[in-house]
Amino acid sequence: MKYLTLIKAIILAGLLMLAKFSSAQKFKLLRFDEDHTALKDSARTFYNRLKYLPLHDSGRAYLSFGGELRAELDRADHEDWGARNVGTNIFLLQRYQLHADLHLGDKVRIFGQMRSGLENGRKNGPRPIDEDQLNVQNLFIDLSPYKGPDDQMSLRLGRQELQYGSGRLLDVREGPNLRLYFDGAKVAYASPKWNVDVFVMAASRVRTGVFDNSISRKSKLWGIYSAHALAKMINVDLYYLGIDRAAAGFDEGTAAESRHTVGTRLWANGKELIYNFEIGYQLGKFGAADISAWGGSMDIGYRFADIQGTPTIKLRSDFISGDDVKGDGKLGTFNALYPNGGYFGMNPQAGPANLLAIHPNLTWSPARNVLLSLETVFSWRQSLRDGIYRPDGSLSLGSSNSDGRYIGTAYITTASWQISRFMSYNAGVQYFKTGNFINDVIPQHKDGFFISSLLACKF
To answer: ∠ CA(160), CA(165), CA(68), 5° rounding?
Structure first.
């Protein structure tokens, strides 16, 4: 496996060396959203051929290739706040991805992407987000039965990544070493004013080996997500999402869960004003109990576009329900489904369930392609009868009949450097000061400390 990693690194590094003198489109979060047809009539350099390889004289059939290599060195002290005496973890994470994009005219497209995620050095082994030695990340076919002058409809079948809104409920999770994927079908309609997706998906279980991930044939995630550009600086998202889990775990216990989420988002990302307001309600069944949960966020910011370095200030507040009374036949804990792992900080230790949070943030660009960020996250339990949860929704600490509400404060500093259009470097430091709840529940409690250094190359 070490030799395979070295070969992949050499191949990708060589491609990047050839690419550094070429022009390229900006890389997207979802690589299949990239469009390299602008290279059709460009100079036939090696890199341009890699991104746009015509298969027919008409140019309507073509191939595009791309990839990524990423190395992340982390140090984590007391990730569990001293509960299990894990102490210090120093570990290396590696991610390798290669993809091919085949277009057969305007009606048919096939996209495939391989991934390899490796972890070395963690005392207690890789977390579920760390290692998957070799697997298929994306493999789908797009069919376009209708394409008008300004709108189109498409059908996507197969393995695919999903990302909607601000990532509070459905996100690809770019931050962790392993990105999320699903198997299923999606029908999408797109026009200048409307985007509507309807999907039915199954979630696979990730194992650490080579092509050993299980494939589920049971739909576990379904929904409809619509985004409407109502007016200048007014965008509205409306959605319904359903999820089914055979054994969902909360402080209340473990049982089968069938949950339905309805919500809306009002947002804009202007030259100066930035805002994002989102609220959702959940109902369904948790074993024999009824589900009644709610969650939302208010995010507002201002970008000083006329000041050198474009300093930007933001203030986010989150209010997410927990369970009020155990064993009362009703579950009030919000399930954030598949959220963005870094929504509550660089290395969040309290996730989006039973949570009240205030999150001020300041970003500034002191030099070209360099961005600095300073932020603080204050976190409380919404309900004293419920515990705290990890970013993936799993239970981290039970309530233990504690009356302590304050979880703690995270102080975060990050720096990002876009070295070139192909290479970036990110570094961050986070200090987590425990609050009265953690101090009450964990006798030998420790403050958390996290340092991250990440180098990434894309082509």
So the answer is: 45
Number of domains in the chain: 1
Rounded to whole angstroms, how far apart are CA atoms 300 and 362? Answer: 12
| Lowest-confidence pick of 48-62, 266-280, 411-425 | 48-62
- Alpha-carbon distance of 374 to 379, in angstroms, equals 17
> What token pair was written down for 218?
């049971």
Residue 136 CB coordination number (10 Å): 17
For residue range 211-228, what is the model confidence (pLDDT) as tens digits? Answer: 999 888 777 999 999 999
The range of the structural domain enclosing residue 88 comes to 2-458
* CATH number reported for the structural domain that contains residue 236 in this entry: 2.40.160.100
Report residue 6: phi and psi, to 5°.
-65, -40
CA-to-CA dists, residue 20 to 46, 279, 315, 370, 459, angstroms: 11, 44, 38, 19, 9
C-beta of residue 340 within 8 angstroms of C-beta of residue 318: no
Judge whether 313 and 362 are in contact, CB under 8 Å.
yes
Alpha-carbon torsion, ordered 189, 191, 194, 195, to 10 deg: 40
Quote the pTM value. 0.90
Amino acid at 107: K
Average pLDDT over residues 143-167: 95
